[in-house]
Amino acid sequence: MENAPAATSDALALALAPLRIWIVGSLDVVLPLQRYGAQVHAMDNIAALYRELAIVPCDVVLIDTALVDEGLSSTVEHLRRRDDLGVVLLVDAATPQRVAEGLWAGADACLAHRPDVELLAAGLYSLRRRLPGEPAQVIEAASAGETSTAWELESGGWNLRAPSGQVLALTEAERAFLSLLFASPDETIGRAQLIAALTDQPWSFDPHRIEVLVHRLRNRVRSVTRCTLPIRAVRGSGYRLTL
Fold it and tell me: What residues are annotated to bind DNA (predicted)?
């Protein structure tokens, strides 16, 4: 049987490598799990998770149940059809019935809505040992001397690698936004084109949501990579990626 890692920062650094974890919500755990060696993709909702799983498999899904308004049981049961997929739910501790619903439906574990990161990593490590087959290969962070001078989208656009070598997992909306800008660097992408990439109901989309998305993305990039994302707002037009 595989031995648990020693409880030191060095031993824990790659405790979850190579494990692919798809997360719905709870972006605050993305970076900590990456530090444990996991490959992490964050998504905005269950529909986005289903679309991604249809294209790229993963080892574990981590779902913030606050984003599942209805049908938690059916969601878990649907995911449980994949024998090689682990299912972990983040649940409000004040709703024990929600915990019971998830476990009865087949979830492997239910943790607090804002879990202790070390406890979460330990739970995922334990689950990993019970999963059949071999976890997919993790995306390796650039080591010293291997950093790039360019910004890059990787893993089908789900990861953003900074010149520092740090990698940021993107949400579905961030991926759609950056994919357009990276496809035409140093060109202004109009708001109408950006909105069309972000929603299938552009007539009801509030354009200010793009500004919010860009603001949050810039802050996340700066926090994770210590680099400034080279995106410029072009007044009255849209946004431009300057590489």
Answer: 136-243
